[in-house]
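Page 47, continued from p. 46.
Same chain as before, 127 aa.
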Amino acid sequence: MSQTPAVTPIAILEQELALIKYNADGLVPVVTQDAKSMQVLMMAWMNAETLRMTLAEGRMVYYSRSRQEIWRKGDTSGDRQFVREGFYDCDNDTLLFLVEQEGNGACHTGAVSCFYRKFGEGSHDAH
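Result:
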């Protein structure tokens, strides 16, 4: 039986959060990457509330555009993501989080990464 990864909250600094630029829907894109392998796992969205939750809880919390609701990664699937580091880009409009991925992987299809299909190889599901 594997041990649950440690939860590592990140200090919430208001001056940093004030820099983040959200789109017209109040969302900012976030790329999630495996902290060990550096493989890009997924891309999703956060709003100001889920960014604060992610930093405070040390677990990835996204905003689902299709369901219009907060989505704490792994609450349903068990494939939780534990924050290791968080970054914002030079334009303050895209986030990057390095995580420890628990369970099968990040993709709802069961693949480790959502980016398992490669151009030029057809549209087969190769996960």
